[in-house]
């Protein structure tokens, strides 16, 4: 999820994946929990751990393929 222009990864979300269409489903409690997390992100949570993610520019990504 994004908050104040920064990305946050939320893992270990209890969810079900539909076997026919691969859609991920969360129940109402989980959805409300995620809203609480999103609301409190700027103040409430430093995160369990940090990861680095590659940022890929579309243009340079295409250049590598050509
Ligand atoms: Zn489905």
Q: Can you walk me through this structure?
A:
38% of the residues lie in helices and 12% in strands. The chain has helices at 28-44, 58-65, and strands at residues 2-3, 6-7, 16-17, 24-25. Strand 1 and strand 2 form a beta hairpin. The strands form two sheets. Strands 1-2 form a two-stranded antiparallel ribbon. It has a two-stranded antiparallel ribbon with strand order 3-4. The chain is flat and about 45 Å long. The mean pLDDT is 86. It has one domain (2-65). Residues 18, 20-21, 23 line the site of zinc ion (ZN).
Features:
66 residues, two-stranded antiparallel ribbon, 2 helices, binds zinc ion
Radius of gyration: 16 Å
Strand order of the largest sheet: 1-2
Q: What structural category characterises the helix and strand content?
A: alpha+beta
Low-confidence stretches: none
- Counted up, domains total 1
Helix segment tally: 2
Mean pLDDT: 86
* Morphology: flat
- From the N-terminal CA to the C-terminal CA, the straight-line distance is 32 Å
Number of strands: 4
Main sheet characteristics: 2 strands, antiparallel
List the helices and strands and how they pair.
Elements lengths: L1 E2 L2 E2 L8 E2 L6 E2 L2 H17 L13 H8 L1
Antiparallel strand pairs: 1-2, 3-4
Bound molecules: zinc ion (ZN).
